[in-house]
């Protein structure tokens, strides 16, 4: 074939392939017919379809031109050979001389040595590569761009056929119905039972190729875009979202993505190549999904999630299904199941029917998670292979306290789960009674209980759970959901609102802890071998002092006559804290010189999360107003064990004698200097761990809001004096852990855990 394929020929090819897919019943005959039609239309001697099975196997499933004996026998792994390269990259490979490429892998049983030119395109479905479509010719030639585009268009239809194809002998029906337990990450706590509902956003595109009038098709795209903008504005205006907060900014950023000129120009370009308006949107959407699965940058992945959602909404307006509730069959106790979703998609569902959201991906800063927290919907993420394991209609038990999901749990397990839910509600009712009672031990020891917060909406929990204040406000999360670094005025408004929500209770601002796994979308950091121990937090801010000055200036202005508590993270040397404290007081002096006034009182503290700082305590305590122990980082450095590595998760116990001895030393040092000491790490949220910390001498704990009630109930049933003697005695043991001993102590003394 010497001339590029014409748009009318492309339309004819698509129609012929669609007819085969719709009329041929036998699955193998259907694939064989499709390869024959494509080979004929492309003027090629070979057309083959490889279908992906499992994670890495690409099986030659149909061919026109290669040896028939190779079908269902020839396999390649993802990344192996040219076919594997297409699957790995999720992009076309076009070569005039296939054998000359370094990735070429000869399979003698196929008889492919007679063919020179090669073009392969991925079969994409939902952003996943479900197979590869290839075309080969005897003579060397480079396929024209229009030919590759035509093949990619046809591949979208072939992908639907391939996704439903099963290799001979594959039958997992019995296994697919077994109960399954998955572990994930708690993104918003809650416990519930419900019915699985698959969040699927695929719309069938009936006409992939335009009738020839590109200007008319572009006009359709632009009109549909205007309709979508109006519909989004109406939807966000009507959304039942409580108060101010980052969820509002997320929706505003999402609305801005809808006006992305690069996205729209790519759609226009696809239309000019001969695709219909619907076909162009679908093509760009599949390409974005494939790119999204290859990206590790959280900001760009989140942006592509939003653009994926917007593409579907645009398709809805183009095909006339906008606003049509694909959720009409939504059960009254729906547990949404999806790989990922945009924030606006969640708002499409009636809130009263939603019990939980389960994500194969997801993080605390994912846009949909922030909106779900505002709606008080339990969310679990990092549930690997979730959409492949569960189907709509399956019963699902969600333990959003311990990060577990039970798929098809069975009658007995479901009954036990209901009993656990009932017991949990009873406990919550008991904790609610304790809300206004003092966190005082049975022998009169007072302990201050505060909460950890990352978003403005979290601060509202202070009153709800009866906490004394906010012991840790993570300032970086609002920075991570924005598209640019907020200026002083923006930060000032945010911090003033946080102080207002605290209603006069102490609120401790932690300065930016970015770097490592916390990435600002508008600032690229170089990759590091050990990011947790690298250029992050206060180290980074001291090297970029203008950022620190701006943040501290905003906090000073926001305080406006109120007390200001500022804590610096990742301090490794006293000199680092001294430099940061000097900048803080310089900003206070600057504001006072300008006649703006300043905070009523200033409390500057250090977060103790680097073991080296423990051996500098005397010098540190002379400079600080308070110390706060951050156990998350401190203990991973203490044990030299990556806390994100599953193989290390249970290797060391937080309640080991070494940890108790280490914390006892910290408590004694602070008491000797009469210095306030807080424990704000996640460890304090466990009731047994909190009991041990109180026994060691900690009198200020900052925990997740849900932990305030259980910890207070434990404390009110505990006599601290005998507990202190017992816990200190455990610190000298050679045991791997003293967890069982502490649990036995609680049982013997009727302390509720």
Poorly predicted sequence stretches spanning 5 or more consecutive residues: 168-177
Class based on secondary structure composition and strand pairing: alpha/beta
Question: Using DSSP, what is the number of strands?
Answer: 22
Q: What is the gyration radius calculated from CA atoms? A: 30 Å
What's the overall geometry? elongated
Number of helices: 29
Quote the average pLDDT: 85
Helix proportion: 40-55%
How would a crystallographer describe the biggest sheet?
8 strands, mixed
Q: Which strand-content bin applies to the residues?
A: 15-25%
State the separation between the terminal residues, measured CA to CA. Answer: 76 Å
Strand arrangement within the widest β-sheet reads 7-14-13-9-10-11-12-8
Structure description:
The chain has 753 residues and is of the alpha/beta class. It has 29 helices and 22 strands. The strands form three sheets. The chain has an eight-stranded mixed sheet. The chain has an eight-stranded parallel sheet with strand order 21-20-19-18-17-16-15-22. A six-stranded antiparallel sheet has the order 3-2-1-6-5-4. The termini are far apart. 44% of the residues are buried. Residues 168-177 have low confidence and may be disordered.
């Amino acid at each position: 074939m010497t001339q590029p394929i014409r748009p009318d020929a492309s339309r004819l090819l698509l129609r012929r392939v669609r007819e085969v897919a719709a009329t041929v019943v036998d699955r193998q005959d259907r694939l064989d017919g499709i390869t024959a039609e494509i080979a004929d239309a492309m003027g090629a001697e070979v057309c083959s379809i490889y279908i992906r099975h499992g994670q890495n196997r690409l099986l030659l499933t149909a061919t026109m031109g290669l040896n028939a004996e190779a079908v269902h026998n020839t396999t390649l792994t993802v990344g192996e050979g040219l076919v594997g390269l297409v699957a790995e990259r999720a992009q076309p490979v076009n070569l005039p001389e296939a054998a000359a490429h370094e990735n070429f892998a000869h399979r003698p049983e196929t008889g492919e040595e007679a063919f020179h030119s090669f073009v392969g395109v991925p079969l994409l479905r939902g952003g996943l590569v479900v197979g590869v479509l290839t075309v080969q010719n005897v003579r060397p030639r480079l396929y024209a761009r229009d030919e590759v585009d035509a093949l990619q268009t046809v591949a979208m239809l072939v992908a639907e056929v391939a996704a439903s194809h099963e290799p001979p002998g594959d039958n997992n029906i019995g296994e697919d119905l077994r109960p399954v337990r998955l572990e994930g990450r708690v993104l918003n706590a809650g416990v519930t039972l419900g019915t699985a509902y698959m969040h699927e956003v695929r719309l069938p595109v009936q006409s992939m190729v335009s009738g020839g009038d590109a200007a008319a098709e572009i006009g359709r795209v632009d009109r549909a875009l205007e309709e979508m903008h109006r519909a989004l504005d109406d939807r966000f205006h009507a959304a039942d979202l409580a108060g101010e907060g980052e969820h509002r900014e997320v929706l505003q950023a999402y609305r801005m993505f809808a006006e992305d000129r690069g996205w729209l120009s790519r759609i226009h370009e696809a239309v000019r190549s001969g695709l219909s308006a619907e076909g162009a949107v679908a093509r760009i959407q599949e390409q974005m999904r494939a790119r999204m699965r290859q990206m590790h940058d959280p900001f760009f992945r989140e942006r592509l999630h939003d653009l994926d959602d917007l593409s579907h909404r645009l398709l809805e307006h183009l095909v006339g299904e906008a606003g049509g509730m694909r959720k009409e069959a939504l059960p009254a106790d729906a547990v949404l199941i999806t790989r990922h979703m945009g924030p606006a998609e969640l708002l499409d569902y009636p809130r009263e029917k939603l019990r939980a959201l389960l994500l194969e991906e997801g993080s605390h800063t994912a846009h949909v998670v922030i909106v779900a927290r505002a709606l008080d919907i339990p969310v679990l993420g990092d549930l690997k292979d979730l959409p492949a394991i569960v189907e709509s209609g399956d019963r699902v038990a969600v333990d959003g306290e311990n990060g577990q999901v039970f798929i098809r749990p069975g009658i007995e397990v479901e009954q036990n789960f209901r009993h656990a839910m009932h017991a949990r509600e009873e406990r919550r009712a008991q904790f609610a009674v304790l809300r206004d009672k003092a966190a005082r031990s049975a022998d009169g020891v007072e302990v201050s209980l505060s909460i950890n917060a990352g978003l403005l909406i979290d601060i509202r929990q202070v009153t709800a759970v009866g906490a004394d204040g906010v012991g840790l406000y993570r300032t970086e999360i609002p920075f991570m959901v924005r598209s640019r670094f907020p200026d002083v005025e923006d930060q000032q408004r945010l911090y003033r609102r946080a102080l207002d929500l605290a209603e006069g209770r102490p609120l401790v601002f932690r300065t930016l802890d970015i770097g490592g796994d916390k990435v600002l979308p508008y600032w690229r950091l170089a990759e590091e071998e050990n990011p947790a121990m690298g250029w992050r937090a206060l180290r980074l801010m001291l090297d970029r002092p203008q950022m620190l000055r701006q943040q501290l200036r905003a906090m000073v202005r926001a305080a406006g006559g109120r007390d200001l508590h500022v804590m610096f993270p990742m301090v490794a040397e006293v000199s680092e804290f001294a430099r940061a404290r000097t900048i803080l007081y310089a900003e206070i002096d600057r504001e006072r010189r300008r006649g703006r006034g300043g905070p009523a009182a200033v409390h500057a503290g250090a977060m103790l999360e680097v073991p080296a700082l423990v051996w500098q305590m005397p010098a540190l305590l002379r400079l600080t107003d308070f110390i706060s122990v951050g156990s998350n980082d401190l203990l991973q450095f203490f044990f030299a064990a990556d806390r994100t590595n599953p193989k290390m998760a249970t290797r060391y116990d937080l309640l080991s004698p070494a940890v108790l001895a280490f914390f006892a030393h910290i408590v004694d040092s602070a008491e000797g200097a009469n210095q306030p000491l807080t424990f704000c790490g996640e460890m304090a949220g466990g009731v047994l761990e909190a009991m041990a910390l109180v026994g060691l001498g900690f009198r200020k704990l900052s925990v997740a809001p849900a932990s305030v009630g259980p910890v207070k109930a434990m404390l009110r049933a505990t006599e601290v004096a005998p507990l202190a003697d017992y816990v200190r005695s455990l610190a000298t043991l050679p045991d791997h852990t003293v967890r069982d001993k502490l649990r036995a102590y609680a049982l013997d003394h009727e302390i509720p855990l």
